[in-house]
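Quick check before the chapter quiz. The format below is the same one you will see on the exam, so make sure you can read both the input and the output lines.
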Amino acid sequence: MPAIAPVDAPEVLHLSLVLGGTLRDAEGARLGRVDDLIVRLGGAGYPPITGFLTTVAGRRSYVPAERVATVTPGAVTLTKAKLDLRPFARRPDEVLLKHDVLDHQLINVEGARLVRANEVELARLDGWWRVVGVDTGARGGLRRLLPKALAGRIATGDFVDWASLEPFSGDLPAMRLRVLHPKLAKLHPAQIADLVEAASRDEGEEIMQALGGDERLEADVFEELDPRRRLELLAERTDAEVAELLARMAPDDAADLVADLDEGRREAVVELLPEGARRKVRALLGFDPAAAGGLMSPDFVSVYRQATVAEALDRVRRSRLPDEVLATIWVMDARHRFLGAVPLATLVRADPEAGVVDLEVAYLPRLRPDADFEEIARLMADFNLTAAAVVDDAERMIGVVTVDDVLEVLLPKGWRRRFGLLGED
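Here is the expected output.
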């Protein structure tokens, strides 16, 4: 649902009514034409207009905002009669509203979706003209098709507050999103992945580059991307950069990504992985990707049956695995053979001095690495499991298939968008 401007909000000025307007001197004489408005990003609050790109006597010129007295529909008036025609050189964090924002996609971090700026809305705040939002609806586009005398009568339609938006850099690589928007960083990795998939290739790459400062988040987003987009993003990275990314991903997702790489590149990338990650990925690549061995993750927490509850909880505390993986603690005997599982909640409620073997250990059925998907789904449904153990011929536990692994196979591609999790305008 579009954001609604407060009742006491200042009057909004549409960018389209300023573009192409007349540049006038202090006496009202015509000097030239207004071609674009420049804003500076990166500060707190709504970004201020720092200058105007104009054409005077056929020459492209820059007018600083402090030399402008008024901005009205159809005209920008200077404070002095004398015009200082400065050449324009874009500074860091500056964006051209017509060139970079109008008719472009922006990230709506509040709604976790991409929106198109059919109009840019300006307002006078704290002594500056500032960008306060964009109109993403049909009214914004219609306004620009009509003569300015009629366009001014069309009110703002689907207004999105600028505080919720993040623009792309367009064709200026030096201005790409260098720092991840705080609100964007709070989105779930799956939501960010949806943004990347909905964006163009360059825009998607820009989002991923902005994640570079948070290596864990970058890896989580890659795990959520569809194979086609992942390969597009990896095409521009070196083998060493791909290996660094894979090392931060869950082993099963890393193995899936390696399997999708060109055959000539796979071995070179795998060889660059740290020893532990390389061993896990090689093991997973040796299984049928459609069977339990190919779907499982080799990362899980297990304890010996003779361990105390306190020792088991300490193992959980020291683990760096994701929270969802730690929901179930797997139990084995002295020979590493699988015995069953204990929910983390049971351990938390138990006496720390009690032995794990004294608790109610669930002796669950297990899967073989060659178990097909039908067997996996049937077992998890029959026993109401969120995770199932995979064991080798010696009954030693080698991995875990989780319910999300099953859902990824069952659900069609693009299911998040079809169910409205990405959002539409």
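If your answer matched, good. The chain has 19 helices and 19 strands.
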